[in-house]
Amino acid sequence: MTDKLTGAAGREYVANAIRQALRAGDLVPGQRLVELDLAEAYRTTRGAVREALQDLAAEDIVEIVPRRGARIRAVSVEEAVQITECRSALEQLCARKAAGRASEEQRAELRRIGADMRQAVADGAWEAYSALNQRLHELVIEAGGQEVARRQLERLNGPMVRFQFRLALRPGRPAQSLPQHLAIIDAVAGADPEAAARAVAAHLDDVIEQLRASAPRA
Q1: Which of 144-149's residues contact partners 24+ apart within 8 Å by CB, and which partners?
Q2: Domains of the chain in sequence order
Q3: Which of 118, 52, 45, 85 is closest to 204 using CA atoms?
Q4: Which residue pairs, CB below 8 angstroms and at least 24 apart, start in 178-184?
Q5: Neighbouring C-beta atoms of residue 88, cutoff 10 Å
Q6: Cα atoms in the 13 Å half-sphere on the side-chain side of 77
Q7: What is the dihedral angle through the alpha carbons of 20, 22, 24, 30, rounded to the nearest 10 degrees?
Q8: What pLDDT shows up at residue 1?
Q9: How far apart are CA 130 and CA 126, in angstroms?
């Protein structure tokens, strides 16, 4: 008898654990991922690990090199900028649609997120702020109901996990981004599609500036 996770449950658990380890900095770009080590660490089978790595490779988080195994894929600052430019176009679409079709429950949740973000900044609770940031973007995409855009954004966001988390925790960043997030919330909750798109564009333009500022100097 075994208590190891197998099948779809093991596959999903390993993939989520690797994403979280990347956010936390426990895994870094270029780091090798050894199937046996991961199976032991996550108490699952090598088959589940292999399938999870294939899923992560499809998301561009992991790179599988023939005869050399898997490793965390390195994303350059320039690639991160280009990904964010694509995100901006899709998230503007989603925000515009969300402003027109969000339910009252979704609008109420957006307002709660805004209040919680204000409190997180006041308390210096940066990890809580980062989680709220993620939920805000997810909720706007959900409310927009644009499934093709949602799927494309999921794929684009995979390689950006590390960049997004590091930017969110940069000193002073939450206070800087708070007004941008509140502008998105106000526009979507207030049913103003064009203001929602402008607010998303302004926020992600600022993210691009922050990414470029983080590039190593020659």
Answers
A1: 144/93, 144/94, 144/95, 144/96, 144/97, 144/98, 144/101, 145/97, 145/98, 145/101, 146/93, 146/94, 146/97, 149/90, 149/93, 149/94
A2: 7-72 (1.10.10.10), 77-213 (1.20.120.530)
A3: 85
A4: 178/117, 178/118, 178/121, 180/206, 181/114, 181/117, 181/133, 181/136, 182/114, 182/117, 182/118, 184/95, 184/136, 184/140
A5: 19
A6: 13
A7: 160
A8: 39
A9: 6
> What does the alpha-carbon distance between residue 117 and residue 113 come to, in Å, rounded to a whole number?
6
**Which of 212, 71, 73, 86 is closest to 157 using CA atoms?**
86
For residues 14 and 43, give the distance between their C-alpha atoms in angstroms, rounded to a whole number. 9
Lowest mean pLDDT among 1-5, 17-21, 170-174, 175-179: 1-5
Residues forming a β-bridge with 61? none
For 197, list phi and psi in degrees, rounded to 5: -65, -40
Residue 121 carries which side chain, given as an amino acid letter? V
pLDDT at 165 over 70: no
User: What is the mean pLDDT of the segment spanning 117-129?
Assistant: 93
- How far apart, in whole angstroms, are the C-alpha atoms of residue 28 and residue 118? 31
Residue 176 tokens read as: 């800087």
Helices (H), the chain: 7-24, 35-42, 46-58, 77-101, 104-123, 126-144, 147-157, 161-168, 173-189, 193-213
pTM exceeds 0.70: yes
